Amino acid sequence: MVASQGAFSEKYIAYLKRRKMGGVEVPEFGEPITNLTVPIGRDATFKCIVVNLGNYRVGWVKADTKAIQAIHEHVITHNHRVSVSHADHSTWYLHIKNVQEEDRGQYMCQINTDPMKSQMGYLEVVIPPDFIPEETSGDTMVPEGGTARVSCRARGIPPPRVMWKREDGQEIVVRDATGAKTKVLTYQGEVLKLTKISRSEMGTYLCIAGNGVPPTVSKRMHISVHFHPVIQVPNQLVGAPLGTDVTLECYVESSPKSINYWVKDPGELIIPSEHHEMTVRQKSMFEAEMSMTIKNIRREDLGSYICVAKNSLGDVESKIRLYEIPGNDRHIYQYTDERTTSDDEYGTEVYDDDFEDKEKKSNRVPDRANKWYSNDGKLIVTANNAIGVLSDAYIITLVNVLKFLA
């Protein structure tokens, strides 16, 4: 098909060359002028092919303004960006450098025959998208449950299309007039409206404008959702042996970001130190994990601790109780004679649960009475027998100790 078209063109040109008017060859256009689409700032070149030009001349005119651009080899316009060139008196070029918006329009290639012969080509100047600052939103703050409305208006030729997406790749939650939710990865339109907004919708949104003319442009908008602090405590009761380290944890959600600190009940502010190591790890824009590690627990460390979070919308606190559990320093408990006891099925004395020594009350969870425990918690010695135990960690040898003491 292409070969046949080329052959036809060559035959047509040969035919034109044979045509004469009054013994003089008649100029003709060899092919139509191609329309051009050029981004602003680039160069444009029109090509006009003339057969049998002879002594005639070629001119260029901007048709809409009737402004003569050039005649033959001479530039007429005062526009310094316009120039002309030709090849073998058959191919004529009009060059426009650094195309501007005012260059858009019809351009005419003329041959000064009588009557004049002419053909036209159109120059379309396209402009990449750009945002209109006064009609484009910035960062926005909205209370949780409220409505966030952000707009993004762009200009360009052809008119740009605007779409929205979240920077973190999460879905956008769009609600219609009935409150029904739709989740989409991209939203089309200049205005994005988020109703009944939740804290999970907080984040950076990208407004992207494109019209097929590079480059596509985007603008970042951060939507902050403000709400009262909330604390979640994974473990409200924490037990640890004396002399060990223990970590207390509280999970905080707040926006704006809260001030977080620890208090020892009933109200003693705890200052970070070698004994109290405190960290706050930010998990997301509104989630934080606050922790406090108490080193080498002492008896005075036992009790209740309060984690507190405060922001401009309010404050919240939650309590964690730290109590003692038996550790590696297990020993035989000695009890006063007032306690009533009974033997369990293993021959071990069991103390009355109702008994409580008011003067020695503590946060310790008591061991079973009159027992020795190894590091792994395995029972080694009871009051009714004495056993020698050898392990990799320790040697315990007891022979009739209880009888001797009795």
TrEMBL record:
UniProt entry tagged with the keyword Secreted: no
Spell out the Pfam families in the cross-references. Answer: I-set, Ig_3
Print the keywords alphabetically.
Cell membrane, Disulfide bond, Glycoprotein, Immunoglobulin domain, Membrane, Repeat, Signal
Tell me yes or no: is Membrane among this UniProt entry's keywords.
yes
Which Gene3D superfamilies is this protein grouped with?
Immunoglobulins
Q: What InterPro entries does this protein's entry cite?
A: Ig-like_dom (IPR007110), Ig-like_dom_sf (IPR036179), Ig-like_fold (IPR013783), Ig_I-set (IPR013098), Ig_sub (IPR003599), Ig_sub2 (IPR003598), Ig_V-set (IPR013106), Neural/epithelial_adhesion (IPR051170)
The cross-references to SMART domains, in alphabetical order and at most eight, read: IG, IGc2, IGv
- Kindly indicate where the leader peptide sits in this chain: none
Q: Name one GO cellular component term.
A: plasma membrane
Q: Where in the cell is it found?
A: Cell membrane
Q: Which residues form the Ig-like domain?
A: 27-112, 129-224, 229-323
Give the matching SUPFAM superfamilies.
Answer: Immunoglobulin (SSF48726)
The protein's superkingdom reads: Eukaryota
Q: What is this protein called?
A: Ig-like domain-containing protein
Q: Which organism is it from?
A: Danaus plexippus plexippus
